[in-house]
Write a structure and sequence with these properties.
353 residues; alpha+beta; D-amino Acid Aminotransferase, Chain A, domain 1; D-amino Acid Aminotransferase, Chain A, domain 2; 9-stranded mixed beta sheet; 18 strands; globular; binds pyridoxal-5'-phosphate
């Protein structure tokens, strides 16, 4: 891919590593790739970070034909920059394109673009412990057209945002409201891809949880509201009677890369792992019998978020005495250790730039 570069005439002052709230600061440049029917994906370029010009009839604004990814670049103590399983993000992005009728984006184009913009903006990868550069690739429909059909033009872009440690004061357990009114996704819909529409759908439930003093929503299946699907924008894990259990990928659950990493790692330790349908009732029964050892959420942003409390229609249970469980802590240390280059990567997941 030939990437044309236009440099910003003035660079921004970099925020300090101690002051990096999630998704607030953006680097000096962005990556753009255009699509039209004649040329396909074309005109790869790095440009100064700036507002876009968009036709008011651009289809993304009306019909939500928009998808995204999220990954991070990590700077180790050796000052080297690492990506973690970016090829999996490339495959998931392509799957998101496919589901939303957006022209396919080859894995190699995605990876080349991510590596090019991260290398170009390498000064923006912070070095304080636990910090990283969040990478946000996204594609949206740009054709000016009213009427529901796939757009004929698109933009694939990447912006970069330095982010602080998710747990500046150590891993913090979260309180979860089990949502039995609103649902996030149903089988046959778009819940298994990173479609922008999924997140608009989730806002109402999230607002409700926050209003009741909870950190996040646990989503149930959209048909029976009995089966556990996800926790907010992260995957859900439970340790029940010595076994790690996570809902199977049913078509309405996002196949998290952290989820897959946990399944692989735990398996390599000899910990039994099961991907299967799991009801809230089973989790509550396990708790009553003293067999619910841990519960945690997994995703790129926080890696692991232990759950201290669930509320299901007013029935409250506490998990691991409200503390971070052993498995959650071990997984967190192992995964972040690989990401920052402190622990050897035996799986071929890390790519040093
Ligand atoms: C992104 C996301 C996840 C986590 O995926 P990772 O690849 O682990 O970051 C889980 N659930 C939803 C709904 C998501 O959007």
């Amino acid at each position: 891919m030939d990437i044309k570069v236009t440099r910003a005439s003035k660079l921004k002052a970099k925020p300090s590593g101690g002051d990096l709230p999630f998704g607030v600061h953006y680097s000096d440049h962005m990556f753009i790739l255009d699509y039209d029917e004649d040329k396909g994906w074309h005109d790869a370029r790095i440009e100064p970070y700036a507002p876009l010009t968009l036709d008011p009839a651009a289809m993304c604004l009306h019909y939500a034909q928009a998808v995204f990814e999220g990954l991070k670049a990590y700077r180790g103590a050796d000052k080297k920059i690492r990506l973690f399983r970016a090829d999996a993000n490339a495959r998931r992005m392509d799957a998101s394109h496919e589901r939303l009728c957006i022209p396919r984006l080859p894995e190699t184009a995605f990876l080349e673009a991510v590596e090019a913009i991260v290398r170009f903006e390498s000064d923006w990868v912070p070095s304080e412990p636990g910090t990283s550069l969040y990478i946000r690739p996204y594609t949206f429909a740009t054709e000016p057209h009213l009427g529901v059909r796939p757009s004929k033009t698109y933009k694939f872009m990447i912006i970069l945002s330095p982010v602080g440690s998710y747990y500046p004061e150590g891993i913090n357990p979260i309180k979860i409201l089990i949502e039995d009114e609103y649902v996030r996704a149903v089988r046959g819909g778009v819940g298994f891809v990173k479609a922008a529409a999924n997140y608009a759908i989730s806002l109402k439930g999230q607002e409700k949880a926050l209003g009741l003093g909870y950190t996040q929503t646990l989503w149930l299946d959209g048909v029976k509201r009995e089966y556990i699907e996800e926790i907010g924008t992260t995957n859900a894990f439970f340790k029940i009677d010595g076994e790690l259990v996570t809902p199977e990928l049913s078509g309405s659950i996002l196949p998290g890369i952290t989820r897959d990493t946990i399944i692989t790692l735990a398996g390599s330790w000899g910990l039994p792992v099961s991907q299967r349908p799991l009801t809230v009732a089973e989790v509550y029964d396990a708790s009553a019998e003293g067999k619910l050892e841990e519960a945690f959420a997994s995703g790129t942003a926080a890696v692991i978020s232990p759950v201290s409390e669930f509320n299901w229609a007013g029935r409250v249970i506490t998990v691991s005495n409200g503390e971070t469980g052993k498995t959650a802590r071990k997984l967190y240390n192992e995964i972040t250790g690989m990401q920052y280059g402190d622990i050897e990567d035996k799986f071929g997941w890390v790519r040093t730039l």
